[in-house]
């Protein structure tokens, strides 16, 4: 004699499967809520970037107009005698250098 709702495990198996399905749906819903919250935060940050980019534009114009105090202002070679060390040899065929 079979007892309704018991015995074969059909009812208990369905309940366990339902709780797993419910848990999976809740986890997916939580994940979607987190993504929505993240996207809202990103949107708020992007709205602020217009203000920041305008300020940066002004800053760049100000900085680019000034010369760098750490770089020397020269129009040519500072020391002519140093220039020969940075040039190649005049005649490569007669040069016996291994590095060239």
From TrEMBL:
Composition bias type Gly residues, residue spans: 1-14
Domain G protein gamma: start-end pairs: 26-100
Subcellular compartments: Cell membrane
Coiled coil: 22-49
Keyword Coiled coil belongs to the record: yes
Entry GO terms, CC: plasma membrane
Keywords recorded for this protein, A-Z: Cell membrane, Coiled coil, Membrane, Transducer
Biological processes annotated in GO: G protein-coupled receptor signaling pathway
InterPro entries on file: G-protein_gamma-like_dom, GG1/2
Keyword Glycoprotein in annotation: no
Disordered: annotated segments: 1-21
PANTHER family: GUANINE NUCLEOTIDE-BINDING PROTEIN SUBUNIT GAMMA 1
Protein name as annotated: G protein gamma domain-containing protein
The species this protein was found in: Brachypodium distachyon
Gene from which this protein is expressed: LOC100830673
């Amino acid at each position: 004699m079979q007892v309704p709702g018991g015995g074969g495990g059909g009812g208990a198996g369905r309940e366990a499967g339902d709780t797993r399905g419910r848990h999976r749906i809740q986890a997916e819903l939580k994940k979607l809520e987190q993504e929505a919250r993240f996207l809202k935060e990103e949107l708020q940050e992007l709205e602020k970037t217009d203000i920041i980019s305008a300020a940066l534009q002004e800053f760049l114009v100000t900085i680019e107009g000034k010369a760098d105090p750490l770089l020397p202002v020269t129009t040519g070679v500072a020391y002519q005698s140093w220039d020969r060390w940075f040039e190649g040899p005049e005649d490569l065929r007669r040069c016996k250098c291994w590095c060239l």
